[in-house]
């Protein structure tokens, strides 16, 4: 904290993406008036992206939820905290007694702090008595958590962000890094300036692809085949790190048997990537020790998302590119605290620290600490909760800091599912599409109005600090959860978030040495940090994997669930854009971000557009088997022929009305990256009327 002519500067963490940039909130007369970057922060090093520079404006926006509300006769009425919490507690108790604890589902939040996610997880299990708790990681990186945990024993980025600029080869697959993790992209481009080779695999020509030395444009949904082809070359050309494979891995022989089915010539036919480029990438990646592999939702959001992640894990083990600085496998997490929400056990099968609910020894530990008998079977995932709500067996939901009516697939079906609930309570900082269906709304405080910690994508646990008092009658999420728990008869009282973190450290081995007072100096600690003498872990799996030996898990190519056909001839892929963030509740209340990207669009290749008679910026109708939207066309070579792209942030042209709810069988993540759609111009361009030529000589008066 510093002082400058009455302006206080409070060091905290950006509330947007998983980079976890350090910034100062400028506070004057109890109001936040601006933001400046931390010059010495290891991630952003004195820089911020456009969202970071504007991360203060939404905090005091007039739309903020300022007091609790209860819906009466179809309209929300202001109510006191006491009345609202009594109402929520009574209804949840009634439903629990009538239908059982598993008739209630809870969504925690990747935007909230670790302490709040831990308490929400505790509330679900100790107060309600269900493991039905999940959050939006189900929609973005659940395949990472499962895939890497099975291969390595830990589902997180293996390296640190400040190692990136010293790497020699950067292989980025399925990540629009410059738009979604701008500060990580900054480190990548610094590495390129120092001579590193950048390889990008992405069907779209994204910004990061424009900087690439090699851009592989595989067909959407063929990542397993592409990675198997690269590994086939590595094995056949003797580029395997044999010593690493022998000493530190298992199950190589079974993996190699499957790998033989993917020679580059076959892979070219599946992926559309030239055999020559597959060989070239395999050699460049395998022969440089300081090679880092990055991926994001282009890999995870498929029905084969877990297999895609396993294939990435196999590649780094095959070449021994793991367990060293500047050498590893790095999933780039999307939201500011999605890593932390997973770490805190806001998932249906694990407590904090990924300790499984089915392990009797672990369950006994939590039962003793919480003094409650806990459910022993894994709960419902987010997608399963919505399915159960639709058929009527899930009766109530408590949603904190999530907006599924924009973020989830097949929105028309989802809306019906929420309408069929007996009771819905939403806790958030702004009204949103989901809260319109709530029976009660609990106003929460923003990141600037509370203390706690966020964990960024490189496992760095950092303090956020309260800069101003909560807006209106809003309260920090952790206080709301505690008060509701007390109303329901389970005592949950903490003097501050530091006490919650002490409980987390006590029960969570990887956070055992992470306490607030240890985070107040410097820029946090990277887990695993097992005790109070531990200084954190810069990179994972140094001498052995978290699970002992790394496991080669055999994977095989499987086509997408809904490929294009004659009725729906285009492949739709969805994603994010630079000026928007998730369901846009904060971005659309920020003038600069709203000005730069005020409306949605569909990217379509010029050849496809010409064939359909679609002009740039004209309106088109896009339909799938689940619904249709009207949207403005953006004719561009970014997207290859046969593929169209729509960002998912916008309510007015919600891409998720179209998307396919088919899920990965293991991680239950939806296949956002592939579904079949039809594109039609809304207004046919007028035909150009030919003007008859005039013979001027014939008109000459002689």
Automatic annotation (TrEMBL):
Location of the 4Fe-4S Mo/W bis-MGD-type domain: 7-63
Iron-sulfur among keywords: yes
GO cellular component, one term: membrane
GO molecular function: 4 iron, 4 sulfur cluster binding; formate dehydrogenase (NAD+) activity; metal ion binding; molybdopterin cofactor binding; NADH dehydrogenase activity; nitrate reductase (cytochrome) activity
Lineage: Bacteria, Pseudomonadati, Nitrospirota, Thermodesulfovibrionia, Thermodesulfovibrionales
NCBIfam families for this protein: Fdh-alpha (TIGR01591)
GO biological process, one term: nitrate assimilation
Pfam families per UniProt: Molybdop_Fe4S4 (PF04879), Molybdopterin (PF00384), Molydop_binding (PF01568)
The EC number(s) this enzyme carries: 1.9.6.1
Cofactor: [4Fe-4S] cluster; Mo-bis(molybdopterin guanine dinucleotide)
CDD domains registered for this protein in UniProt: MopB_CT_Formate-Dh_H (cd02790), MopB_Formate-Dh-H (cd02753)
SMART domains reported in the protein's UniProt record: Molybdop_Fe4S4
Catalysis: reaction(s): 2 Fe(II)-[cytochrome] + nitrate + 2 H(+) = 2 Fe(III)-[cytochrome] + nitrite + H2O
Entry-linked InterPro entries: Asp_de-COase-like_dom_sf, CT_Formate-Dh_H, Formate_Dh-H_N, Formate_DH_asu, MoPterin_dinucl-bd_dom, Mopterin_OxRdtase, Mopterin_OxRdtase_4Fe-4S_dom, Prok_molybdopt-oxidoreductase
Entry keyword set: 4Fe-4S, Electron transport, Iron, Iron-sulfur, Metal-binding, Molybdenum, Nitrate assimilation, Oxidoreductase, Periplasm, Signal, Transport
Enzymatic class: oxidoreductase
KW Mitochondrion (keyword) present: no
Protein name per its UniProtKB record: nitrate reductase (cytochrome)
Cited function: Catalytic subunit of the periplasmic nitrate reductase complex NapAB. Receives electrons from NapB and catalyzes the reduction of nitrate to nitrite.
């Amino acid at each position: 904290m510093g002082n400058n002519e009455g302006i206080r500067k409070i060091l905290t963490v950006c509330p947007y993406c998983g980079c976890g940039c350090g910034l100062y909130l400028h506070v004057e007369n109890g109001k936040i008036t601006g933001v400046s970057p931390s010059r010495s922060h290891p991630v952003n090093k004195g820089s911020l992206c456009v969202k970071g520079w504007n991360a203060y404006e939404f905090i005091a926006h007039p739309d903020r939820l300022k007091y609790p509300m209860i819906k009466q006769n179809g309209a929300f009425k202001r109510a006191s905290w006491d009345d609202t919490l009594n109402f929520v507690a009574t209804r949840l108790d009634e439903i629990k007694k009538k239908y059982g604890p598993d008739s209630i589902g809870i969504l925690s939040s990747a935007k909230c702090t670790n302490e709040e996610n831990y308490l929400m997880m505790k509330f679900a299990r100790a107060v309600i008595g269900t493991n039905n708790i999940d959050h939006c990681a189900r929609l973005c990186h659940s395949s990472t958590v499962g895939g890497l945990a099975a291969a390595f024993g830990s589902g997180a980025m293996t390296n640190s962000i400040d190692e990136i600029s010293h790497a020699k080869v950067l292989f980025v697959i399925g990540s629009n890094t410059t738009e979604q993790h701008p500060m990580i992209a900054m480190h990548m481009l610094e590495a390129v300036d120092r001579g590193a080779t950048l390889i990008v695999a992405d069907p779209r020509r994204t910004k990061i692809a424009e900087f690439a030395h090699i851009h592989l444009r595989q067909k959407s949904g063929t990542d397993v085949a592409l990675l198997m082809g690269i590994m086939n070359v590595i094995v056949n050309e003797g580029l395997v790190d044999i010593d690493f494979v022998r000493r530190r891995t298992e199950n190589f022989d079974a993996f190699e048997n499957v790998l033989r089915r993917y020679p580059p010539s076959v892979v070219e036919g599946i992926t559309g990537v030239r055999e020559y480029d597959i060989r070239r990438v395999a050699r460049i990646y395998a022969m440089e020790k300081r090679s880092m592999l990055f991926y994001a939702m282009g890999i995870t959001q498929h029905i084969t998302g877990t297999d895609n992640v396993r294939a990435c894990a196999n590649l780094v083990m095959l070449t021994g590119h793991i367990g060293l600085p500047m050498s590893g496998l790095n999933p780039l997490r999307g939201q500011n605290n999605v890593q932390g929400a997973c770490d805190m056990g806001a998932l249906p099968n694990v407590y904090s620290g990924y300790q499984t609910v089915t392990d009797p020894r672990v369950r006994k530990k939590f039962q003793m600490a919480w003094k409650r008998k806990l459910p022993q079977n894994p709960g419902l995932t987010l997608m399963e909760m919505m399915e159960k709500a639709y058929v009527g067996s899930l009766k109530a939901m408590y949603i904190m800091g999530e907006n599924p009516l924009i973020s989830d697939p097949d929105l028309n079906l989802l809306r019906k599912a929420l309408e069929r609930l007996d009771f819905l309570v939403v806790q958030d900082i702004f009204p949103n599409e989901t809260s319109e269906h709530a029976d009660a709304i609990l106003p929460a405080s923003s990141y600037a109005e509370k203390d706690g910690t966020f964990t960024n994508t490189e496992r760095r646990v950092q303090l956020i600090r309260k800069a101003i008092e909560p807006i209106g009658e809003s309260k920090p999420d952790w206080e709301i959860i505690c008060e509701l728990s007390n109303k329901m008869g389970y005592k949950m009282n903490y003097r501050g978030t530091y006490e919650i973190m002490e409980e987390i450290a006590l029960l969570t081995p990887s956070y055992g040495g992470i306490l607030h007072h240890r985070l107040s100096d410097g820029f946090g600690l990277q887990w695993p940090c097992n005790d109070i003498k531990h200084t954190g872990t810069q990179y994972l799996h140094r001498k052995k994997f978290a699970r002992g030996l790394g496991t080669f898990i055999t994977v095989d190519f499987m086509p997408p669930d809904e490929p294009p056909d004659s009725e729906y001839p285009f492949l739709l892929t969805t994603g994010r854009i630079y000026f928007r963030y998730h369901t846009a509740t904060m971005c659309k209340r920020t003038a600069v971000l709203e000005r730069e990207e005020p409306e949605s669009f569909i990217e379509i290749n010029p050849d496809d557009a010409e064939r359909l008679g679609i002009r740039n910026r004209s309106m088109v109708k896009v339909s799938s088997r689940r619904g249709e939207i009207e949207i403005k066309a953006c004719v561009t070579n970014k997207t290859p022929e046969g593929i169209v792209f729509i960002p998912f942030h916008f309510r007015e042209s919600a891409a998720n009305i179209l998307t396919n709810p088919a899920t990965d069988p293991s991680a239950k993540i939806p296949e956002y990256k592939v579904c079949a759609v039809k594109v039609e111009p809304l207004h046919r361009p007028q035909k150009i009327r030919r003007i008859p030529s005039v013979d001027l000589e014939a008109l000459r008066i002689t």
